[in-house]
Amino acid sequence: MLTLTGEKLYLRALEPEDLEFIYEIENNESIWEISATQTPYSRFLIKQYLENAHQDIYEAKQLRLVMVNMKKESIGLIDLFEFDPKNKRVGVGLLIAKSEHKHKGYGKEALQLVCNYAFKHLHVHQVYANIGEDNLASINLFESLDFKQIGVKRDWTFINGEFKNEVFYQKIAE
């Protein structure tokens, strides 16, 4: 079995054909809170980003993969970010794009696949995630895969006129 292929989905590199899919996600104001986005992205900027997406994770310090179900539908994105080979750690974040694909096990399988990839191929010692304290679905997802809450960043993000806490989760290699 390939590292990035599961029973329900597989993870693949970004392609030029993903322009509209990424455009819709990046310009969806309802998820700006989790992506720390504050302004819309143009198709031109996303096209440039896709043209440079071939960079190796050791060079770019990040890797964005598309989550594709077995019907060949792009259903979300999973990112490795702030890759730090010296300290052997990497951050992870994921997003299921449409509600009809949520609560079907896609997020759990994608997170499991990308963690296995990070531990096996990138040789990291830990994978971590920053999750809004009120994002219970994500907290449950990460905890179901043995991520441990190790701290709370108080008043970390300022959203819709109020400060919100962010919870820091970590999974250490076994």
UniProtKB/TrEMBL annotation:
InterPro entries per record: Acyl_CoA_acyltransferase, GNAT_dom
**Which residues constitute the signal peptide according to the record?**
none
At the top level of its lineage, which domain of life is listed? Bacteria
Looking up Gene3D superfamilies in the UniProt record yields:
3.40.630.30
The residues covered by the N-acetyltransferase domain are 9-174
A Pfam family of this chain? Acetyltransf_3
Q: What is the protein name given in its UniProt record?
A: GNAT family N-acetyltransferase
